[in-house]
């Protein structure tokens, strides 16, 4: 059974249809990455999977159950979502932020417990933020701040984690740091992770499964080595490229065509003139 799926799902804003009768099944216990050009509906689809957006038609199924009919706290105990560029109130500490992830487990009858504290401590340890627990979130670097938000989703202790462009605005070092963390969570705890990523090469490196969206529908889906071809990149992103194999990971490596300084041509010209 898939972790989460859609049946003839349609989404939109106002008169604009963004997703039209889309069927997709997210593999359980794997990392799935949604790819596509800007405005194709990746983030909109992700929001609908988390029940943050009401469908115009069709349905979202969580472990085979219609998510629209499930109690809010039950959904929050099954899946967590980290939106793009989240913000925290000024002065909120890392520890206070991560504690918010335990909200779905609180009630009038069940207040803060040792189980909640243990979940927060585990999330801080997993994201290597133990020594920064008392620091304000707004005092952290971009990578540290993103780790704090991921720690909050980990404290929520869900089997499914949805992330909308978790590496946005981060430099290369912090991008790899965040993606390595998510990869380890999947590898060690078999969490189902669904991400929106713009970098095709990183998507291929970290994803078990890719879903390419174009014209309100799924253009292609499957393992990165099955999905990423020159034709797909041209059709989905309107970009010509060469697809080769990553020399370190063996995953597809997309080399876009375009203008720029070509050292191969420069070397050839130098050889002719010498």
Automatic annotation (TrEMBL):
The keyword Aminoacyl-tRNA synthetase does not apply. SUPFAM superfamilies: P-loop containing nucleoside triphosphate hydrolases. Keywords: ATP-binding, Cell membrane, Ion transport, Iron, Iron transport, Membrane, Nucleotide-binding, Transport. Residues 4-240 form the ABC transporter domain. It is found in: Cell membrane. PROSITE patterns: ABC_TRANSPORTER_1, ABC_TRANSPORTER_2. This is ABC transporter ATP-binding protein. It comes from Bacillus velezensis (strain DSM 23117 / BGSC 10A6 / LMG 26770 / FZB42) (Bacillus amyloliquefaciens subsp. plantarum).
């Amino acid at each position: 059974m898939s972790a989460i799926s859609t049946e003839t799902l349609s989404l939109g804003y106002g008169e604009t249809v963004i997703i039209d009768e889309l069927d997709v099944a997210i593999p359980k216990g794997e990392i799935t990455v949604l790819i596509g050009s800007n405005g194709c509906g990746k983030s909109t689809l992700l929001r609908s999977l988390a029940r943050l957006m009401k469908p115009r038609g069709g349905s979202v199924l969580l472990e085979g159950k219609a998510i629209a009919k499930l109690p809010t706290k039950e959904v929050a105990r099954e899946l967590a979502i980290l939106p793009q560029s989240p913000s925290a109130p000024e002065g909120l500490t890392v520890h206070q932020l991560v504690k918010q992830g335990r909200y779905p487990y609180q009630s009038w009858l069940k207040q803060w417990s040792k189980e909640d504290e243990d979940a927060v401590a585990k999330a801080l340890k997993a994201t290597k933020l133990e020594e920064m627990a008392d620091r304000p979130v707004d005092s952290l670097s971009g990578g540290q701040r993103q780790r704090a938000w991921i720690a909050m989703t980990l404290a929520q202790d869900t089997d499914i984690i949805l992330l909308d462009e978790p590496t946005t605005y981060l430099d290369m070092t912090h991008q790899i740091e965040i993606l390595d963390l998510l990869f380890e969570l999947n590898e060690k705890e078999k969490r189902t992770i669904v991400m929106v990523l713009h970098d095709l090469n990183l998507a291929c490196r970290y994803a078990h499964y890719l879903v390419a969206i174009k014209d309100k529908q799924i253009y292609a889906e499957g393992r990165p080595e099955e999905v990423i071809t020159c034709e797909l990149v041209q059709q989905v992103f309107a970009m010509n490229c060469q697809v080769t194999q990553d020399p370190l990971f063996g995953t597809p490596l997309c080399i876009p065509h375009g203008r720029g300084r070509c050292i191969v041509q420069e070397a050839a010209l130098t050889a002719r003139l010498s």
